[in-house]
Write a structure and sequence with these properties.
This protein is α/β, with parallel strands linked by helices. Helices cover about 25% and strands about 15% of the residues. A seven-stranded parallel beta sheet has the order 1-2-3-4-5-7-6, with no helix packed on it. Strand 2 (about 95-100), helix 5 and strand 3 form a beta-alpha-beta unit. It is globular, with a radius of gyration of 16 Å.
Length: about 210
């Protein structure tokens, strides 16, 4: 199938200005954990960017719904593998970086297993998956994670400590960052040449609140 045929079946990839290339996301309303914290002041979810701006536009919501519905398809792994391969193959290697969940989060351990398969099938890419679904990732072992995937357990509270149960983490700060500081706030909210989030050698990344 070509790109348009695949996108019709499983949805498009996002192409946000911050990322080096493509992302994949669903509605933030479908976050199992985030939907609880979105009402609690002081949490990262309280000011969730994925519940405002262009994320509330009709076309965006329709795309997110298509992606969510598609993950239950038996062919989803094969289709997603093919779509990523076709979309990235013409890009230079410095853009072979894919982000899972520019909005939304993991739906189940089965969903994560599906993503693992896609990562294994696209070893030419480096994958990054931020999540607050601690109960899901706590069911897996580090050795079972594809080598080209970094799963970062995201902190819940602004200016809070990183999750202690997981090897790779991220937090949001206003004053005192912990670990590597994401430079995006100094460069038009873009990754530009930075690829730190995708590298396992960097255990903790801190993002400035915006």
């Amino acid at each position: 199938m070509n790109i348009k045929q695949l996108e019709k079946k499983i949805g498009t990839l996002s192409n946000t200005s911050k990322m080096p290339a493509y992302s994949w996301g669903i509605s933030a309303h479908k976050c199992n954990v985030g939907s609880k914290f979105v009402k609690i002041k002081g949490t990262v979810c309280y000011k969730c960017y994925a519940l405002k701006h262009f994320f509330v536009m009709k076309n965006t919501k329709m795309s997110q719904k298509t992606r969510l519905n598609a993950i239950s398809m038996p062919e989803w792994v094969d289709y997603m593998t093919e779509l990523l391969t076709l979309k990235y193959k013409k890009l230079p290697k410095d853009k072979h970086y894919h982000r899972w969940f520019c909005s939304g989060d993991l739906q189940s351990i089965w969903h994560l297993a599906q993503i693992f398969e896609v990562c294994e099938n696209t070893k030419f890419l480096k994958h990054w998956l931020p999540t607050r679904e601690y109960q899901i990732i706590n069911q897996i072992k580090y050795k079972d994670i594809p080598k080209n995937l970094v799963i970062r357990a995201s902190g819940i509270k602004i200016d809070g400590q990183p999750p202690k149960f997981w090897k790779w983490t991220s937090t949001v700060h206003t004053k005192n960052p912990i670990g590597y500081v994401c430079p995006a706030y100094l460069q038009d909210r873009q990754c530009k040449a930075c690829r730190t989030c995708w590298y396992r050698l960097v255990r903790q990344v801190s993002y400035k609140e915006h």
